[in-house]
Every structure is written in structure tokens, then in C-alpha cells.
Design goal:
Low-confidence stretches: none
Strand content: 15-25%
Largest sheet: 3 strands, parallel
Helix content: 25-40%
Mean pLDDT: 88
Number of strands: 6
Strand order of the largest sheet: 1-2-3
Order of helices and strands: HEHEHEHEEE
Number of helices: 4
Shape: globular
Length: 150
Amino acid sequence: MCLSGILPLALLSNRVEAAVVCQPTVPFSALSRKPNDEQAPNLGLGPADLANALKSPVPFLLVHYLGDELCPPERVQEIRRQFTTRVATIDLTGDHHSSLAGDFDEVAFEDVVTYLKVCLGAETGPRTMKAAKLDNRACVIGADRMWRAS
């Protein structure tokens, strides 16, 4: 979730088959308890971890609330910029924070489960996502575990 939100990307080079990034909060300012302007686009990964994540072919899912001050839009934009067609995003309306726990969103949860089932081989694709988007367009997770706009 938030404090470990970006950690799945650091693990992509370690035989990870699927990753869900939820409201990545780190890094943030201890004083304001939210990312400052300099930290906003920072993914919180070291150079080696970022390089390994970028080399990995694993598609992943990013879940966040659009108005969440702890997960700034600049960070989400940077993830999209770096990982392009490998990241599908669930942009939830509101200023909540914990999309799969305290501020639970059922549709986001359903998409996460669908994505995990296909990527982990419990179901075959393609499967249409209800909320996830690829480049702001509806998408599917294919039998080859790749995101495609639908």
C-alpha cells in the first residue's frame, strides 16, 4: 500500500509475475507529512532498482485517488512516462487515500483481482478491465499478460 507502494517495481527483476502499485507515497517530507514539490515526481527507487524495473517485461497496475495529496499527480505522471504501455492506471475520484483498504473501492479491487488472476495463470486472458485504463483508454489484460487498449 502507500509506504510500500513503489516497492513492487523494485522487485520486478526478481521473478515477480505481477505487481500492483497502490498510492505510492514515499518519498515525502516528515515535516508536512506529504511529498514536497521536489519529491512529487520522485519514484523513490535507487538507480539500480529503477533500471532493473525498466528492463523487466512485467506489466503492472497502478491504483490511486486523483485528489490524494500523499500520492501527487506528478509521481503518477512520472510512472506513466517511464513505463508507458506496461502500466495500466485506475484513477479513482475523490481525495481519499487507501484504495484497497480503509477507503476501499470495490471496482478497483475487482480489476486488481482480474489482473492478478491473468498474470498469475489462474485465468486466461484477454480480460476486460472495469476501471483500469491504458493511456486514458479502456483496456484489457491479454493472454500474453500485456495491456492493450480496447
